[in-house]
Specification:
mainly beta
Length: 230
């Protein structure tokens, strides 16, 4: 599969196992048949780089995208245009559907906040989650009621969506510049760190649970060179 621009994000359809969506630096959302490698649809409404795309796991026809044009767009695989457009106040860095609903989503923004919406009333947010000191780079749902966010302030925050409040802050990794990744299985939360490490937290503890540090590329090259000498 070949794309004309740098890819920023991919998302697999949980129902149609061969269907994948990608977003890229030109703001284009592309649907792919992963089995054949063919493009099946192209959406071109974003005006700037698109950072994030995500399929809805309850309604696999729906997907969402977020862009530097400060817009969140809802698409259907059955139409060639967006069905809903949400105007944000700043660049949108990440978007994620709730795993238990076709209507609810959260997105992180350069305004340092996580925004929570019900698509049945897209003109009004359900909550704005404030607490980060820099841009929110990732949002991931632990459940239908809780979401974790990552920011370039070197913090993760766990949010209670019912009360729109922060229940825990996780510190121990370094993240001041790059998008280093965020993943969760509902209990454990993993993220990258700018000291060439992967860090793991437990949702019930604020302190770092585990850190695995990778060898530098320079170290690997020196090790391989020494191995050849023998």
């Amino acid at each position: 599969m070949s794309c004309t621009s740098k890819i920023s994000c991919i998302s697999w359809n949980s129902f149609h196992k061969t269907q994948m969506a990608s977003s890229d630096y030109e703001g284009i959302i592309t649907l792919w048949d992963a089995f054949s490698g063919d493009k099946t649809a192209v959406f071109q409404e974003h005006e700037k780089r698109c950072w994030s795309v995500d399929f809805n796991s309850v309604d696999p026809k729906l997907l969402v995208s977020g862009s530097d044009d400060a817009k969140v767009k809802i698409w259907s695989t059955e139409t060639d245009h967006s069905e809903i457009s949400i105007e944000a106040r700043a660049n949108v860095c990440c978007v994620k559907f709730s795993p238990t609903s076709r209507h609810h989503l959260a997105f992180g923004s350069a305004d340092h906040c996580v925004h929570y919406y019900d698509l049945r009333n897209p003109k009004r947010h359900l909550g704005i989650l404030k607490g980060h000191r820099k841009a929110v780079s990732y949002t991931k749902f632990l459940s239908g009621e809780r979401v974790v966010s990552a920011s370039t302030d070197s913090q993760l925050k766990l949010w209670d969506l019912e009360g729109c409040s922060c229940s825990r802050t996780f510190k121990g990794h370094a993240n001041e510049k790059n998008f280093v990744g965020l993943a969760t299985n509902g209990e454990y939360i993993a993220c990258g760190s700018e000291n060439n490490s992967v860090c793991v937290y437990y949702e019930g503890l604020s302190k770092l649970l585990l850190m695995h540090k990778f060898s530098s590329v320079k170290h690997l090259l020196v090790t391989r060179a020494r191995g050849r000498d023998f």
